[in-house]
Amino acid sequence: MTLTAAPADQALLLDLQILDTTLQRLATRRAKLPESAVVAEVTADRTQSERLVVEQTGAVEDARAELRRTEADVAVVDARIARDQQRLQNSSSMKDIQGLEQELQALARRKSDLEDIELVVMERVEEREGALAATREALAGLATRHAEAVAARDAALGALERDRAQAVRERDEIVGRLPADLVALYEKQRARYGVGASLLRGGVSTAVGVALGVADLRAVAQAAPEDVLICPESSAILVRTEESGI
Q1: What pLDDT, on a 0 to 100 scale, did the predictor assign at position 79?
Q2: Residue 200: enclosing H or E segment and its boundaries?
Q3: Where do the domains of the chain lie?
Q4: Which pTM was predicted?
């Protein structure tokens, strides 16, 4: 048995289809929101910089620890030099004096080597501290960019949500005015074929932009205005108006 519905109700399906197309478009925009992509990119950069800060902080601490060890070694040598110089001043034995002088020479060479190492380590500390400071500065900039990106994304999402909510309200209002069986058929066809209603304009099914054949147009022309027809091209409900050309 053919479903029937008032032509005005069938025409309302076109408005319903427009709203459903709008909702689908809004969902697609939300899923592919450029602002969300920017947030994801900045978040990835920020995570990478945070990881780099941790690594560089460890490298700075290692270099500082090495510098402290070298400074401690220099302090030990300085203490031994001071002790030997004191003993040298108080010694009257030529043998002891000779031994102390040789030891002082060896200590002086050792101190020179340690001071060279100390300079290298100090440069390493400065270099790593500089790299860490640069990364922290970049991270601060990324934090600002992230906050701006999140704000822009939230604003875009808010606008989309307002549009979606408006479309849902309008859709609910139309659905409330239509017969339940007509809405059920519309939803069934839309779920299966992607389009629930198609306007027949000048013999063309606008949902797919395809002209109906002669036999199909004849069948449409012979159908009563209240008959709910299925478009042979789009499988959507075929809505007939004064524009249909039949």
Answers
A1: 92
A2: strand 197-201
A3: 7-27+179-244, 33-168
A4: 0.75
